[in-house]
């Protein structure tokens, strides 16, 4: 995918007077090999490479409009003005785009998000992927999808993977070299998958915001968990096994590897000091039901992120049966079926 565009360059070398605007859409992704832990907080460089599936649900649509008269950036999420940490992160991201574009012009950001924000369903992934594509176009940067994945990474690591559809790997990049080399080496790209027709059954057992942000939980895990380094080492092996499983179209192996990688990630957090525990009793209820499905002969495998919600990987042909079983296990909760979704794209400019 390329996001070439023809926005008129910002006026003047400082970019003052720019009037660009652009709208982009992106979908969340769910990691099958997790990203957990940064080796560089500023550049958002991960300790390990990760691999995800982009979903066809929960799109985020973001419009960025440059406002030459404004003294600061403003943002609204689903019509509600952003404040505090959310606004700080958006402003820091726009500042990075401005530095690259040589512009000093502030922006107005409007985001419509259909993901339950902060519930471990990766709203930051679709959010920063859409923001990266829209802001790059509005500020007149001509970046291809690889470069946009590096840019989105700076907003939220997992956002780098939402630039692409289907299965996607985000490379950690080499640990040696200059900051510029490290930045260049850490990008996302699509992964070939032979003949797989997967679904992810998403059990939203808690749509509320999480108590500990993934950013803080990662930092604490890397700094204090005796299990972090061993998991990081085994995750590199999981990634190699996962890529091979995708190449040969072996969805059972894909599921097994994804489940062990996610449980391992949660083990690293449980061993952090103090512990971070995102998994709730409802999570465990779903995990038990998924195990039971396997005993019944259905290939279904669980994965969880920085929250209690469970995503169950299965064949698309089995998705309704798996969803039914999960609904029976947690009858009061929302259960949705997602398939592989598309990469981020520009919807329009000057819109
Ligand atoms: O959304 P971020 O960039 O703060 O990272 C979240 C990491 C996990 O969702 C837990 C795992 C992953 O690889 O997406």
Could you report the average pLDDT, rounded to the nearest whole number? 92
Structural class from helices and strands?
alpha+beta
CATH top-level class of the largest domain: Alpha Beta
Largest sheet: 6 strands, mixed
Give the beta-strand count: 16
> What's the architecture of the largest domain, going by CATH?
2-Layer Sandwich
* Ligands (ions, cofactors included): (3R)-3-hydroxy-3-methyl-5-(phosphonooxy)pentanoic acid
Sketch the topology as an H/E string, one letter per element. EEEEEEEEHEHHEHEEHHHHEEHEE
* Overall number of domains: 2
Strand content: 15-25%
Helix content: 25-40%
Write down the oligomeric state. single chain
Query: In whole angstroms, how far apart are the ends?
Result: 21 Å
Q: Globular, elongated, flat, extended or rod-shaped: what is the shape?
A: globular
Describe the structure.
It contains nine helices and 16 strands. It has a six-stranded mixed β-sheet. Strands 2-5-10-11 form a four-stranded antiparallel β-sheet. A hairpin with a 4-residue loop joins β3 and β4. The chain folds into two domains: 174 residues, 2-Layer Sandwich (Ribosomal Protein S5, domain 2), CATH 3.30.230; 141 residues, Alpha-Beta Plaits. The protein starts with 20 loop residues before the first strand and ends with a strand. The chain is globular, with a radius of gyration of 20 Å. With 351 residues, the protein is α+β, with helices and mostly antiparallel strands. α6 packs antiparallel against α7. The N terminus is likely disordered. It binds (3R)-3-hydroxy-3-methyl-5-(phosphonooxy)pentanoic acid. (3R)-3-hydroxy-3-methyl-5-(phosphonooxy)pentanoic acid binds next to α2 and α5.
């Amino acid at each position: 995918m390329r996001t070439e565009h023809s926005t008129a360059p910002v006026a003047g070398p400082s970019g003052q007077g720019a009037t660009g605007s652009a709208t982009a859409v992106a979908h969340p992704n769910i990691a099958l090999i997790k990203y957990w832990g940064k080796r560089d907080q500023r550049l958002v460089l991960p300790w390990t490479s990760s691999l995800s599936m982009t979903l066809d649900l929960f799109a985020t649509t973001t419009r960025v409009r440059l406002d030459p008269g404004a003294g600061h950036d403003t943002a609204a999420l689903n019509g509600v003005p952003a404040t505090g940490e959310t606004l700080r992160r958006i402003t820091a991201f726009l500042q990075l785009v401005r530095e690259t574009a040589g512009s000093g012009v502030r922006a107005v950001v409007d985001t419509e998000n259909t993901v339950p924000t902060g519930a471990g369903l990766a709203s930051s992934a679709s959010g920063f992927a859409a923001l990266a594509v829209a802001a790059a176009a509005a500020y007149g940067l001509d970046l291809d999808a690889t470069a946009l994945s590096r840019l989105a990474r700076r907003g939220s690591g997992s956002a780098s993977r939402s630039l692409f559809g289907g299965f996607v790997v985000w490379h950690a990049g080499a640990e040696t070299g200059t900051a510029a080399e490290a930045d260049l080496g850490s990008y996302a790209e699509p992964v070939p998958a032979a003949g797989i027709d997967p679904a992810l059954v998403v059990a939203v057992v808690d749509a509320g915001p999480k108590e500990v942000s993934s950013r803080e939980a990662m930092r604490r895990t890397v700094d204090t968990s005796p299990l972090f380094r061993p998991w990081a080492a085994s995750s590199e092996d999981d990634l190699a096994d996962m890529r091979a499983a995708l190449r040969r179209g072996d969805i059972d192996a894909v599921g097994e590897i994804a489940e062990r990688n996610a449980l391992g990630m949660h083990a690293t957090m449980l061993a952090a000091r103090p512990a971070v525990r995102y998994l709730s009793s409802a999570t465990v209820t779903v995990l038990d039901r998924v195990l039971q499905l396997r005993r019944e002969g259905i290939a279904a495998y669980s994965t969880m992120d920085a929250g209690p919600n469970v995503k169950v990987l299965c064949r698309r042909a089995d998705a309704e049966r798996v969803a039914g079983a999960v609904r029976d296990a947690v009858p009061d909760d929302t259960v949705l079926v997602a398939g592989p979704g598309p990469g981020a794209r520009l919807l329009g400019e000057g819109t």
